[in-house]
Design a protein that fits this description.
- There is one protein chain.
- The chain is of the alpha/beta class.
- The chain has a single domain, classed as 3-Layer(aba) Sandwich (Rossmann fold).
- The protein has nine helices and seven strands, in the order βαβαβαβαβααβαααβ.
- The protein has a seven-stranded parallel β-sheet with strand order 3-2-1-4-5-6-7, with helices on both faces.
- β1, α1 and β2 form a beta-alpha-beta unit.
- α1 packs across α9 and α3 runs parallel beside α4.
- The radius of gyration is 17 Å and the shape is globular.
- The termini are far apart.
- The structure holds NADP nicotinamide-adenine-dinucleotide phosphate.
- The site of NADP nicotinamide-adenine-dinucleotide phosphate has 30 residues, from α1, β2 and α7.
């Protein structure tokens, strides 16, 4: 028996990186997958094909997660195509790193809008469907940086810490309707987002992690699989660190 057989998941930002990894693991576990992207049109088409090859229904939607109206429209479209949404993974995110001294108002607003406001937008939009079903799992992608803070990432850390507060509040509000809401705080996961970084710096980070390696999208996806499936039926309001022991 596959762990997500019969379920429908909506995953934001799955054209690459961690989101793509989550979509693949969910599809392997029998889940139907609706996913979003913003600019990577060709990559999203490729992901749609790869997911469909697992014998499940998969569809990509070009939709800006930071836009409230677009999120409502997206959920309407997904419901038309898939009939329900059992799992929402709020994964889409960006960085605009720089020291506070150089950080512009736009750098701050953009990161908050895409990383944090998007989670409000999508959670609001799926809420009614999950309330009617009296069931649902919402998974929000935070970061160890949201737990600990990081020099040069005040905007990103604020957005990721905000996600943890939002997650706990939603868990408290919707728990009585059997809707669970948890956050994942990945550590250093090697994706296109981190490919931009200098290799020497990256090796230094790997060496400082107790498990002596960066994480993979699959490492994060497997934690999402647990939170999306009925294996975590009694888990809500938590922030699960997937960081190789980085903050320990
Ligand atoms: N990589 C890490 O080490 C790490 C660590 C902790 C947390 N995280 C978090 O994990 C999540 C995924 O990170 P990643 O490393 O996989 O990043 P990534 O490779 O850059 O992928 C980001 C994804 O988000 C999408 N996206 C960006 N802005 C969007 C928007 N406004 N609306 C809809 N989709 C949007 C992108 O789509 P397009 O390409 O089409 O624009 C892409 O599919 C992020 O929330 C990130 O903060 C990552």
């Amino acid at each position: 028996m596959k762990l997500l057989e019969g379920k429908v998941a909506l995953i934001t930002g799955a054209s690459k990186g961690i989101g793509k990894g989550i979509a693949e693991v969910f599809a392997q576990q029998g889940c139907q997958v609706a996913f979003t992207y913003l600019s990577s049109v060709a990559q999203a088409e490729e992901v749609e094909k790869e997911l469909s090859a697992y014998g499940i229904k998969a569809k990509g939607y070009r939709s800006d997660a930071s836009d409230f109206e677009a999120a409502q429209q997206l959920v309407d479209d997904v419901l038309k195509d898939f009939e329900t949404i059992d799992v929402l993974v709020n994964n889409a995110g960006i960085t605009k790193d720089t020291l506070l001294m150089r950080m512009t108002e736009e750098d701050f607003d953009k990161v908050i809008q895409i990383n944090l406001k998007s989670i409000f937008n999508l959670t609001k939009a799926v809420q009614r469907t999950m309330l009617k079903a009296r069931s649902g799992s919402i998974i929000n992608m935070s970061s160890v940086v949201g737990v600990k803070g990081n020099a040069g990432q005040a905007n990103y850390a604020a957005s990721k810490a905000g996600i943890i507060g939002f997650t706990k509040s939603v868990a408290l509000e919707l728990g009585s309707r059997n809707i669970r809401c948890n956050a994942i705080a990945p550590g250093f996961i090697e994706t296109e987002m981190t490919d931009k970084l200098d290799e020497k710096t990256v090796q230094g980070w790997r060496d400082a992690i107790p498990l002596k390696r960066g994480g993979s999208p699959e490492d994060v996806a497997n934690a999402c699989l647990f939170l999306a499936s009925n294996l975590s039926a009694y888990v809500t309001g938590q922030t699960l660190q997937v960081d190789g022991g980085m903050l320990t």
